[in-house]
Specification:
125 residues; mainly beta; 10-stranded antiparallel β-barrel; 10 strands
């Protein structure tokens, strides 16, 4: 039992986020409106900083922080106005499951899927 606990502690719970870390990804929300997400490792987790720009001017931004909670990945999202949502994200064979939405890795980037809405992101850095 102790060996199993040590093995689990040695694993990087946040490794399923490595596909996104170190890169920036973009999607077009509307004509002249771009949403960019950049993922970086922090001292204790992963941060997804995103900005929405309309005709090049930033109109909105937010951060999602991911951290290990035992063997689970917890996230907390906040925007310019303060905390918005938090929860647990579950790694899957295709990407990440947030409960109400999921991320699926694609050949050129990833897609976010919520209900019947799909948004494609492409890697820009």
């Amino acid at each position: 039992m102790i060996a199993l606990a040590l093995l689990l502690a040695a694993q990087d719970v946040l490794a399923p986020l490595d596909y996104w870390v170190g890169h920036c990804w973009q999607t077009t929300l509307a004509p002249d409106t771009i949403d960019t997400h950049c993922f970086t490792r922090t001292g204790t987790g992963v941060r997804d900083h995103h900005e929405v720009r309309v005709q090049g001017a930033k109109v909105y931004q937010g951060d999602t922080d991911y951290r290990a909670d035992g063997t689970r990945i917890r996230f907390a999202y906040r925007n310019d106005k303060g905390p918005v949502s938090e929860g647990v994200v579950t790694p899957t064979a295709q990407g990440l499951d947030f409960g109400k939405s999921r991320w699926v890795r694609t050949p050129g980037g990833y897609a976010t899927i919520a209900g019947d809405r799909r948004r494609e992101f492409v890697r820009v850095r």
